[in-house]
Amino acid sequence: MQAIIDEAKRMGATHAVEISPRDVVTARWVRLKCRYGCPGYGRSLTCPPHSPTPEETAAILGEYRSAVLVHRRGDWPDCMDQMISLERFAFLRGYHKAFGFSCGPCRLCEECDTKKPCAHPDRVRPSMEACGIDVFETASRAGLPIDVATERSDIPDYYALLLVE
Fold first, then answer.
1. How many domains does one find in the chain?
2. The domain containing residue 52 runs over which residues?
Protein backbone atom coordinates (compact mmCIF):
# COMPACT_ATOMS: atom_id res chain seq x y z
CA MET A 1 0.00 0.00 0.00
CA GLN A 2 2.84 2.37 0.73
CA ALA A 3 3.98 2.17 -2.89
CA ILE A 4 0.49 3.25 -4.04
CA ILE A 5 0.46 6.13 -1.57
CA ASP A 6 3.94 7.20 -2.68
CA GLU A 7 2.88 7.03 -6.33
CA ALA A 8 -0.19 9.18 -5.66
CA LYS A 9 2.03 11.78 -4.01
CA ARG A 10 4.52 11.58 -6.87
CA MET A 11 1.59 12.37 -9.19
CA GLY A 12 0.88 15.56 -7.26
CA ALA A 13 -1.44 14.54 -4.43
CA THR A 14 -1.34 16.79 -1.39
CA HIS A 15 -2.31 13.79 0.76
CA ALA A 16 -2.87 10.10 0.11
CA VAL A 17 -3.93 7.90 2.99
CA GLU A 18 -5.05 4.32 3.43
CA ILE A 19 -8.57 4.07 4.80
CA SER A 20 -11.09 1.34 5.41
CA PRO A 21 -13.89 1.14 2.84
CA ARG A 22 -16.22 1.05 5.87
CA ASP A 23 -15.20 4.68 6.49
CA VAL A 24 -16.41 5.74 3.04
CA VAL A 25 -19.84 7.29 3.57
CA THR A 26 -22.57 6.84 0.98
CA ALA A 27 -25.91 8.62 1.04
CA ARG A 28 -28.79 9.15 -1.37
CA TRP A 29 -28.88 12.91 -0.71
CA VAL A 30 -25.47 13.32 -2.39
CA ARG A 31 -26.95 12.68 -5.82
CA LEU A 32 -29.56 15.38 -5.20
CA LYS A 33 -26.66 17.83 -5.37
CA CYS A 34 -25.91 16.48 -8.85
CA ARG A 35 -29.54 16.46 -9.96
CA TYR A 36 -30.34 19.91 -8.59
CA GLY A 37 -27.25 22.00 -8.91
CA CYS A 38 -24.99 20.56 -11.60
CA PRO A 39 -25.51 21.44 -15.27
CA GLY A 40 -23.94 18.09 -16.21
CA TYR A 41 -26.69 15.96 -14.64
CA GLY A 42 -27.74 13.23 -17.09
CA ARG A 43 -25.38 14.49 -19.78
CA SER A 44 -22.59 11.96 -19.23
CA LEU A 45 -22.41 8.23 -18.66
CA THR A 46 -20.26 8.90 -15.59
CA CYS A 47 -22.92 11.11 -13.99
CA PRO A 48 -26.27 10.32 -12.43
CA PRO A 49 -28.61 8.78 -13.35
CA HIS A 50 -26.15 6.64 -15.35
CA SER A 51 -23.54 6.18 -12.61
CA PRO A 52 -23.81 3.58 -9.82
CA THR A 53 -26.38 4.40 -7.17
CA PRO A 54 -25.41 4.97 -3.54
CA GLU A 55 -26.80 1.52 -2.74
CA GLU A 56 -24.70 -0.11 -5.48
CA THR A 57 -21.65 1.83 -4.33
CA ALA A 58 -22.14 0.75 -0.70
CA ALA A 59 -22.38 -2.88 -1.84
CA ILE A 60 -19.20 -2.52 -3.91
CA LEU A 61 -17.35 -0.94 -0.97
CA GLY A 62 -18.28 -4.02 1.06
CA GLU A 63 -16.29 -6.18 -1.37
CA TYR A 64 -13.00 -4.42 -0.54
CA ARG A 65 -10.73 -4.45 2.49
CA SER A 66 -8.78 -1.28 1.80
CA ALA A 67 -8.81 2.00 -0.07
CA VAL A 68 -6.59 5.00 -0.68
CA LEU A 69 -8.18 8.42 -0.34
CA VAL A 70 -6.33 10.92 -2.50
CA HIS A 71 -6.52 14.66 -1.79
CA ARG A 72 -5.28 17.46 -3.95
CA ARG A 73 -5.49 21.09 -2.99
CA GLY A 74 -6.05 23.37 -5.95
CA ASP A 75 -6.95 22.69 -9.56
CA TRP A 76 -6.86 19.05 -10.70
CA PRO A 77 -7.93 18.98 -14.36
CA ASP A 78 -6.34 15.57 -15.00
CA CYS A 79 -7.89 13.83 -11.97
CA MET A 80 -9.50 11.09 -14.06
CA ASP A 81 -6.29 10.34 -15.98
CA GLN A 82 -4.28 10.22 -12.77
CA MET A 83 -6.75 7.90 -11.06
CA ILE A 84 -6.71 5.54 -14.03
CA SER A 85 -2.88 5.59 -13.88
CA LEU A 86 -2.96 4.95 -10.13
CA GLU A 87 -5.46 2.12 -10.63
CA ARG A 88 -3.14 0.55 -13.23
CA PHE A 89 -0.14 1.06 -10.92
CA ALA A 90 -1.98 -0.87 -8.18
CA PHE A 91 -3.20 -3.57 -10.58
CA LEU A 92 0.34 -4.23 -11.83
CA ARG A 93 1.43 -4.71 -8.21
CA GLY A 94 -1.03 -7.51 -7.62
CA TYR A 95 -4.18 -5.61 -6.62
CA HIS A 96 -6.35 -7.20 -9.29
CA LYS A 97 -9.57 -5.60 -8.00
CA ALA A 98 -8.19 -2.04 -8.04
CA PHE A 99 -10.81 0.50 -9.11
CA GLY A 100 -10.62 4.28 -8.99
CA PHE A 101 -13.29 6.90 -8.47
CA SER A 102 -12.47 10.26 -9.97
CA CYS A 103 -13.43 13.80 -9.06
CA GLY A 104 -15.71 15.97 -11.11
CA PRO A 105 -17.46 15.33 -14.39
CA CYS A 106 -15.95 13.56 -17.38
CA ARG A 107 -14.33 15.92 -19.88
CA LEU A 108 -13.20 13.41 -22.52
CA CYS A 109 -15.91 14.12 -25.07
CA GLU A 110 -17.37 17.48 -25.95
CA GLU A 111 -20.78 15.85 -25.84
CA CYS A 112 -21.56 12.39 -24.44
CA ASP A 113 -24.09 10.27 -26.31
CA THR A 114 -25.75 8.63 -23.32
CA LYS A 115 -27.74 6.33 -25.61
CA LYS A 116 -24.57 4.55 -26.77
CA PRO A 117 -21.75 2.81 -24.90
CA CYS A 118 -18.93 5.07 -23.71
CA ALA A 119 -16.43 5.97 -26.43
CA HIS A 120 -13.56 5.78 -23.91
CA PRO A 121 -14.34 3.02 -21.36
CA ASP A 122 -10.64 2.46 -20.67
CA ARG A 123 -10.08 6.15 -19.81
CA VAL A 124 -13.15 7.01 -17.74
CA ARG A 125 -14.25 6.55 -14.14
CA PRO A 126 -17.20 8.05 -12.28
CA SER A 127 -16.69 10.67 -9.63
CA MET A 128 -17.15 9.88 -5.96
CA GLU A 129 -20.12 12.25 -5.77
CA ALA A 130 -21.81 10.76 -8.83
CA CYS A 131 -21.84 7.41 -7.02
CA GLY A 132 -23.35 8.86 -3.85
CA ILE A 133 -20.17 9.16 -1.79
CA ASP A 134 -20.31 11.93 0.81
CA VAL A 135 -16.83 13.33 0.18
CA PHE A 136 -16.99 15.81 3.08
CA GLU A 137 -17.80 13.15 5.68
CA THR A 138 -15.37 10.64 4.18
CA ALA A 139 -12.49 13.15 4.17
CA SER A 140 -13.36 14.26 7.72
CA ARG A 141 -13.33 10.66 8.97
CA ALA A 142 -9.88 10.25 7.42
CA GLY A 143 -8.63 13.35 9.23
CA LEU A 144 -8.03 15.22 5.98
CA PRO A 145 -8.84 18.87 5.31
CA ILE A 146 -11.92 19.82 3.34
CA ASP A 147 -13.49 23.24 3.33
CA VAL A 148 -16.39 24.78 1.50
CA ALA A 149 -15.09 27.24 -1.06
CA THR A 150 -17.11 30.37 -0.28
CA GLU A 151 -15.34 32.73 -2.68
CA ARG A 152 -14.20 32.21 -6.28
CA SER A 153 -10.67 32.99 -5.09
CA ASP A 154 -10.72 30.15 -2.51
CA ILE A 155 -8.46 27.20 -3.28
CA PRO A 156 -10.67 24.09 -3.53
CA ASP A 157 -10.03 20.64 -2.11
CA TYR A 158 -10.47 17.75 -4.56
CA TYR A 159 -10.76 14.10 -3.60
CA ALA A 160 -10.57 10.81 -5.45
CA LEU A 161 -10.68 7.23 -4.16
CA LEU A 162 -8.87 4.07 -5.14
CA LEU A 163 -10.35 0.78 -3.94
CA VAL A 164 -7.71 -1.92 -3.55
CA GLU A 165 -7.74 -5.58 -2.61
1. 1
2. 2-164
